[in-house]
Design goal:
By secondary structure, the protein is mainly α. A hairpin with a 6-residue loop joins strand 1 and strand 2. The N and C termini lie far apart (about 55 Å). The protein is built from 9 helices and 2 strands, in the order αββαααααααα. The chain is elongated, with a radius of gyration of 21 Å. The chain has a two-stranded antiparallel sheet. Helix 3 packs antiparallel against helix 4.
């Protein structure tokens, strides 16, 4: 009764529907990761806040419905991909919510007491979500899940934990102080954060493409050394592994 961040009750379903709309908007702007077909969205910040405000069950429901709306209705993905996305969202949020409650987040009486539970929840969410995708890609392409995760998601770890987790905490505070109107206004900086991360991924991809182009140009200048840089790269990576 005296908790600072109560879970959802039967009288608070209107905010849940608003939250569903916010999550759907965030899901409509995915960021493709360089060198893969994987993507991330800023909706994870809203997921973190939903776990704190409404509890993991309601948060999982919001994520599942928004995933169906964006994947099946707007993006028109195949049903089996939509089913996988929904299942992964539910497992990810339930696991993150369990860790959040386990580390004392449910009984937090102040924002300071939420630091450890939020951090633990963010790590759990990130690992379950990204490893789940990496495992499925590895099974589909008969590759190594660990290496796929390293090349696709490892470099996003700091951005996710330092960027999206604090954003989720800010959304919680805004919702507690202002309510749904405050969360709606916060969508603007949230989408700006998405834009900034998009610029970063684009710059990373341009850097990779530039290095490849320079390598190809150097090799093309001498037919006897064509492909030399690629072979040296493969041997270097093999030795490092």
């Amino acid at each position: 009764a005296g908790r600072t961040f109560p879970t959802a009750s039967a009288q608070s379903w209107i905010p849940v529907f608003w939250w569903l709309g916010f999550a759907t908007i965030a899901e409509l702007s995915p960021i493709m990761l360089p060198g893969s077909r994987a993507y991330i969205t800023v909706s994870s910040a809203l997921d973190y806040a939903a776990i704190v405000v409404f509890g993991p069950v309601v948060a999982a429901m919001i994520a599942a419905v928004s995933s169906v709306l964006t994947s099946l209705v707007f993006s028109r993905q195949s049903p089996h991909k939509v089913l996988f996305n929904v299942c992964l969202f539910v497992v990810t949020i339930m696991a993150a919510g369990f860790v959040f409650n386990l580390t004392g987040g449910r009984d937090a009486a102040s924002v300071g007491e939420l630091v450890l539970p939020l951090a633990a929840m963010g790590v759990t969410y990130f690992l379950v979500d990204t490893f789940g995708v990496s495992l499925v890609v590895a099974l589909h392409e008969r590759g190594n899940a660990w290496r796929i995760w390293q090349s696709t998601y490892l470099w996003t770890t700091l951005t996710h934990l330092v960027g999206f987790v604090p954003l989720g905490a800010i959304i919680v505070v805004i919702y507690r102080e202002i309510g749904i109107p405050g969360v709606a206004l916060f969508l603007v900086p949230l989408l700006l954060a998405r834009y900034s991360f998009k610029l970063y991924t684009d710059m990373r991809q341009v850097h990779i493409d530039t290095v490849r182009a320079l390598t190809s140009t150097i090799d093309a200048s001498d037919p006897f050394t064509r492909g030399h840089s690629e072979r040296v790269t493969e041997y270097s990576v093999a030795l490092a592994r």
